[in-house]
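Structure first, sequence second, as always.
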């Protein structure tokens, strides 16, 4: 007989009760294990100083014993790494020099740090300025609570007049920066509605979910600041542009004790200026330039002295004025930006100018060469600057000659080396003696070098580190410096333009990206020049333009007259007539095909003509000019 499947026997009450007890015991054991792990994780977090308090002076016992513990102890806390994170959105100043703009966001509220501009490259013909892309800010305008400014250089304040037309919120900056911003806003006729607030080092300003504490630093312009930025996620220290100058012109040494105090309080993240991250050693004091100027004034003897410098380098201008006054020379200014900055600085007390030392350049002819010092813009070889116009003989007030002693008191910004060299060559052709060698000490940087950067890192002792303000090579070198002072590699993040970086007590990571391109200012037009327009302009400048005009029969589509060809900036080959004839024959062939075509419209005809002419010209000349086609149907 086949086997039958046995039916399961029913369990007794005693067996059921016993199994239930076993299950309950297993659950209890697992719960105890979970609690034990949780307690261990909590202990590790406390030892690693995970929860940093932001009230001044509060430090955990672990950090008191070992200040470096907060950045070297690895945490095993199993939580959401982005919970309670502050987000940093980089809209400018990353992988580039200039147009610095950073947004900080916490719990849906945002603040802006700096809003600069930059000058166009050689491949941006017709462009006056380049601004950051404000699209992200425009979409989040209702979340923006304030704008904070580190200092008054153009690459940090130049974009404000355009930004304030999108979002009008309070602006906080030091006295000189406010004075320079006011001039810009008046020029754009938006000063009346601006909310400008003057602050000083030590001030703490609340803005939404953030508080900003101003810290004095040295730079090539007075009244420069770093900021301690606090929110629920922790404290971020942003250095702004800075250097360590132990003998500054204005007498205010960088506030290293305050930075050390912030380090003791507990810094979540340090964002540091990367401009000079490639330069070893320490950045020299600005006073070194004063000593060089003294020697050069003696060397000039009875020649007229012309000095080119950055218009916003107030400390350099002060030293030139002091030296000129001691040598019984009068000062004449040439360059609109230089005149504006000098006027504001004198009015606010940042420049000490004896009476009668600075005169209008209109009075230049009333003084002998040995009594004159001309301070001018154009140290970077800018095409429309005063020094460039002097070098090309286009300046209305100054004619350069053999009795001129020209001093270039600046180092070319990367990318400007060629234009600076051209200006120097043109000045020498006019007979001027030009002093420009870097080795002479004509210029010192306003940015910290490697040893200065490492000193600040060790004082601040951040948990995380982000290099800012520089090209990719500067940022990468800066990251290497951070690694060399003991900041772990997984706590260093090199951002990209448009990065949204989330920083919490547990992690730092790039969370997403936003639009962060370039907005071109072309005369009064803002943003109406795009990459396509720039491509056409560059093409026009290199290959010229070819105009082709034709008259066709409205009904038959045939040519009613010979094709007319005109060119601008396009150099024909030696046999121009032959090329003209070839282009005409090409156009006639297109018209013949058009007459035989089906459903062909005028727009299609123009495109066919453009393609055919472009191909014909390239075939004969190997050039690709801009081609404009006009077809008139009668």
């Amino acid at each position: 007989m086949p086997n039958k499947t046995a039916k399961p026997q029913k369990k007794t009450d005693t067996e059921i009760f016993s199994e239930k007890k076993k299950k309950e015991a297993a659950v209890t054991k697992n719960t105890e294990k979970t609690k034990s792990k949780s307690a261990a994780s909590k202990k590790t977090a406390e030892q690693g100083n995970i929860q940093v308090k932001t009230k001044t002076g509060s430090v955990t016992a672990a950090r008191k014993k070992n200040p470096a513990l907060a950045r070297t102890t690895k945490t095993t806390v199993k939580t959401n790494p982005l919970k309670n994170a502050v987000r940093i959105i980089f809209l400018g100043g990353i992988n580039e020099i200039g147009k610095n703009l950073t947004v900080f966001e916490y719990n849906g509220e945002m603040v802006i740090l700096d809003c600069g501009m930059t000058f166009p490259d050689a491949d941006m013909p017709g462009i006056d300025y380049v601004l950051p892309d404000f699209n992200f800010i425009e979409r989040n305008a209702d979340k923006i609570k304030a704008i904070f400014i580190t200092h008054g250089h153009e690459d940090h304040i130049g974009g404000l007049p355009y930004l304030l037309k999108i979002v009008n919120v309070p602006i906080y900056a030091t006295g000189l920066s406010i004075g320079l911003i006011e001039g810009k806003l008046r020029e754009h006729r938006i000063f009346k509605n601006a909310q400008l607030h003057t602050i000083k080092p030590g001030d703490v300003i609340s803005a939404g979910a953030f508080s900003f504490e101003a810290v004095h630093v040295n730079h090539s312009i007075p009244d420069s600041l770093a900021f301690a930025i606090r929110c629920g996620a922790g404290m971020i220290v942003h250095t702004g542009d800075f250097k360590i100058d132990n003998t500054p012109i204005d007498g205010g040494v960088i506030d290293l004790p305050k930075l050390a105090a912030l380090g003791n309080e507990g810094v979540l993240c340090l964002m540091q200026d990367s401009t000079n991250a490639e330069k070893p050693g320490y950045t020299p004091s600005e006073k070194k330039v004063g000593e060089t100027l003294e020697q050069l004034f003696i060397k000039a003897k009875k020649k007229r002295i012309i000095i080119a410098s950055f218009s916003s380098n107030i400390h350099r201008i002060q030293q030139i004025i002091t030296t000129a006054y001691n040598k019984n020379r009068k000062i004449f200014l040439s360059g609109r930006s230089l005149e504006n900055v000098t006027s504001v600085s004198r009015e606010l007390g940042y420049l000490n100018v004896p009476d009668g030392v600075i005169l209008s350049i209109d009075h230049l002819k009333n003084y002998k060469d040995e009594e004159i010092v001309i301070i001018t813009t154009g140290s970077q070889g800018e095409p429309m600057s005063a020094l460039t116009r002097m070098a090309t003989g286009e300046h209305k007030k100054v004619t350069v000659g053999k009795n001129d002693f020209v001093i270039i008191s600046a180092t070319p910004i990367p990318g400007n080396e060629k234009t600076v060299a051209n200006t120097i060559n043109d000045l020498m052709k006019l007979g001027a003696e030009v002093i420009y060698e870097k080795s002479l000490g004509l210029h010192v940087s306003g940015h910290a070098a490697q040893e200065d950067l490492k000193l600040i890192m060790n004082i601040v002792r951040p948990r995380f580190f982000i290099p800012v303000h520089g090209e990719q090579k500067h940022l990468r070198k800066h990251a290497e410096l951070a690694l060399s002072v003991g900041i772990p590699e997984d706590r260093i993040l090199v951002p990209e333009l448009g990065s949204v970086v989330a920083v919490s007590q547990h992690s730092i990571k790039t969370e997403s990206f936003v639009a962060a391109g370039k907005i071109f200012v072309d005369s009064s037009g803002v943003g109406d020049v795009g990459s396509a327009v720039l491509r056409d302009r560059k093409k026009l400048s290199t290959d010229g333009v070819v105009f082709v005009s034709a008259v066709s029969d409205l009904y038959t589509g045939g040519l009613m007259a010979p094709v007319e060809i005109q060119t601008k900036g396009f150099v024909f080959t030696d046999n121009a007539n032959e090329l003209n004839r070839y282009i005409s024959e090409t156009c006639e062939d297109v018209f013949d095909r058009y007459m035989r075509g089906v459903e062909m419209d005028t727009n299609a005809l123009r495109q066919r003509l453009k393609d055919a002419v472009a191909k014909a010209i390239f075939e004969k000349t190997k050039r690709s000019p801009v081609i404009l086609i006009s077809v008139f149907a009668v």
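Margin note: The domain at 86-282+445-522 is CATH 3.60.15.10 (Metallo-beta-lactamase; Chain A).
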